[in-house]
Amino acid sequence: MKPAVAFACGVLFALGLGISGMLLPAKVLGFLDFFGSWDPTLLGVMCAAIPIYLLAWTWRHGRPSRWGSLVPARANHGLDGRLVLGASLFGAGWGLTGVCPGPAVTNLAAPSAFTLTVFCSILAGVALSFLVPARGQTLAKRRSQSNITPATSAHETQNTA
Amino acid sequence: MGMALLGGALIGLAAAGLLVLTGKTAGVSGIVDGVLRGERGEWAWKACFLLGLVSGGLLLAWRMPSALPHAPPRAWPWVIAGGLLVGFGARLGGGCTSGHGVCGIGRGSLRGLVGTVVFIAAGAAAVLLLARLA
């Protein structure tokens, strides 16, 4: 059931991206243009999405999910240099292309030189991040660990925002 | 603003649905990362989520083609450099717009909030800088 639920959620997520205007780089760049001709409409996306997610989280956190693992009990509040550096690089890239990962995947439905180039560059960027060792680990240690116990690798803990 | 709110509500419902029904986080960069690595035990649902995104995109292309982009917003070198930074930065920072901005903040995570404030500020800085260069 889990893959089917994930598929359905992916479809709904993509429709939300499309209806809101998040798939259009010009719209996104207008939202980021605070000091020029700022277009605040995309603020509406977070204003609607966050309260809905917050309700679901408040209701179910720390409890079993219907078809999968436990809904995490706690949020990750840890701050570190990697978060700030990574978010800075991500944001700078977002301001260059106007495309973040969700739209990059969704836009594959309309293949063009632009959508394919953005998607492949993002994939290459993700692949490049494999070269960075996880915190407190050497690359070799990380590789051997991810081969044995992928569920407990540092990568997994890094995933939970 | 109405369409953005409606779209945002769908995004919130999709991410909340994934959380409540499977216990998983709808962070797209983390999902792409897992699929690319061939992450054992997680690969199937992650691949299906991405397949769902593309399928939703096909529905949009059919009923609402104006929702999808056609031309690049900037010259190609910027587009390619931007894509590389988006992919690399999202993984280094442990999340992107969906993971930090919706699922992180949406669970009251300080990490998600800081990540979101930083990437919006960096995005605004990039847009400002390029406007000055042009």
TL;DR of this structure?
The complex is a heterodimer of chains A (161) and B (134). Chain A folds into two domains: 1-75, no CATH class; 76-150. Chain A is 63% helix and 0% strand.
Using brief descriptors, characterize the structure shown:
heterodimer; A: mainly alpha; 2 domains; 8 helices; 63% helix; B: 134 residues; mainly alpha
Describe the structure.
The complex is a heterodimer of chains A (161) and B (134). By secondary structure, chain A is an all-alpha fold. Chain A has 2 domains: 1-75, no CATH class; 76-150. Chain A contains 8 helices and no strands. The radius of gyration of chain A is 18 Å and the shape is globular. The relative contact order of chain A is 0.09. Chain B is mostly helical. In chain B, 75% of the residues lie in helices and 0% in strands. In chain B, helix 5 packs across helix 6 (110-133). The radius of gyration of chain B is 16 Å and the shape is globular. The interface between A and B is large, with 121 and 119 residues.
Shape of chain A: globular
Q: Could you give the count of β-strands of chain B?
A: 0
Q: Give the count of helical stretches of chain B.
A: 6
| Proportion of strand residues of chain B | under 5%
- If you average the pLDDT of chain B, what whole number results? 97
Number of helices of chain A: 8
Mean pLDDT of chain A: 89
> In percent, how helical is the residue content of chain B?
over 70%
Write the layout of secondary structure elements.
The complex is a heterodimer of chains A (161) and B (134).
Chain A (H helix, E strand, L loop, with lengths): L1 H19 L4 H8 L10 H18 L20 H17 L3 H6 L6 H17 L9 H10 L5 H6 L2
Helix pairs in contact in A: 2-4
Chain B lengths: L1 H21 L5 H10 L5 H21 L12 H17 L4 H8 L5 H24 L1
Helix pairs in contact in B: 2-3, 5-6
